[in-house]
Amino acid sequence: MDIFAKCYKFTDAKKAQMMGVYPYFKPISTAQTSEVIINGERKIVCCSNNYLGLTIHPRVKEASIKAIKKYGTSCTGSRFLSGSLDIHDEVEKKFAKFIGKESATLFTTGHHVNQGVISALVGRGDVVITDKLDHASILDGCRLSYGEMVRFKHNDMEDLERVLKKYEDKPKLIVVDGVFSMEGDICNLPEIVRLAKFYNSRIMVDDAHSLGVLGRNGRGTAEHFGLELDVDLIMVTASKSLASIGGFIAGREEVVHYIKHFARSLIFTASLPPAQVAAISVSLDIIEEEPERRERLWEITNRMLQGFKDLGFNTRYSQTPIIPIVIGGGLQKVFAVCRSLFDEGVFASPVLPPAVPEGEELIRTSYMAIHTDEQLEFVLDKFAKVGRQFDIIPGGTYKGKRIKLKSLKRSYPRRMVSKFVLGTKKWMKEIFGNRFTKK
Length: 439
Ligand SMILES: Cc1ncc(COP(=O)(O)O)c(C=O)c1O
Description:
The chain has helices spanning 5-9, 12-19, 58-71, 86-99, 110-121, 136-144, 157-166, 189-199, 221-225, 253-262, 264-267, 274-289, 291-311, 331-344, 373-389, 414-432; strands at 35-38, 41-45, 103-107, 127-131, 148-152, 172-177, 202-206, 233-237, 247-251, 322-326, 346-347, 349-351, 362-366, 403-404, 436-437. With 439 residues, the chain is an alpha/beta fold.
């Protein structure tokens, strides 16, 4: 049996590509802002994590250019050996001070932080306890650890207590997303802290989507709840509000020191390039100096949450700039809805099982402080139109109309099309019923 056999059998994505509903790997040919160009067409972006819009801030760009001029483009080595610059040390100190912890260390991605920290800390005989909807990188960290991994129901504190009680006598680490990346809700940190104290567990919060967003000063979930002293480890990624890439872990000096010597994803990978370090450093300054960005983000969040609810969409538990829109009806339907939105000028991402339960497939929308009112109106308008078209919200007027699915097979060789056409026809019927017809 050929190990590649599974690759040859995997045809779903190719079918979706041929039908023109494939939503992934779309090449953007402009900067990451609220409006981009994709394949020559303008789209309003509703799927970015650039919450404060800092990727295009002149000071951030300038700092990166300056860093390249001074240090070049890469460190070509790990932090551990030849890849540490003075600016790595400086930005770590700056972040630790910002977040209110003794020490911090910088990894090359947020994924590396979760992988490296969890696997370094959770050894044989230890238990790592995670929320069922925690980010995949947390799961990967758990898988790499030698400890036992136990999950509790999403944000369900009774279930967390059940797990804590069961492992009362073991060393424990609870790891939760501060803001859940697909659902946009906030973890119940006050209760997690109470239970952790009672059952003698440590807490690590992944603030990937909270930094710059939650808290009076944008310091994340712990600040939001006034629990800065009660969270042992704060993880953030620099790939969202910090307009860069990379990730930090912050906590007590001894713990961070240990992580620096045992986290394999820190030791065995090259360090963050200078331009990215400089972008992080200036972004931290801007978060402190321009609180109006966060205020605008929250104004937008409230407006969009209300807007979608008023239209009749189900936004699940969202409380933040991440606003999921429940579509349901399976993968094909979500792809088709995404494609229709895209044709209308809105770029948003589908979320499929296992990230969400079967039948509760979503489109994850997210907002930035730099979205204009006109862009937001446009997005709501297009969601309303497409939502009715697919009977996701009431008031559908499109039922039974012939709608052209423009690009079917546009860019695929005849040979490939004929190979998949039978499967594709069946697939199309499942998605569109009789509502969509090809040219
Ligand atoms: C909650 C959460 N944690 C960790 C990560 C990984 O971060 P990075 O993109 O820096 O690898 C992400 C990225 O999407 C995330 O959403």
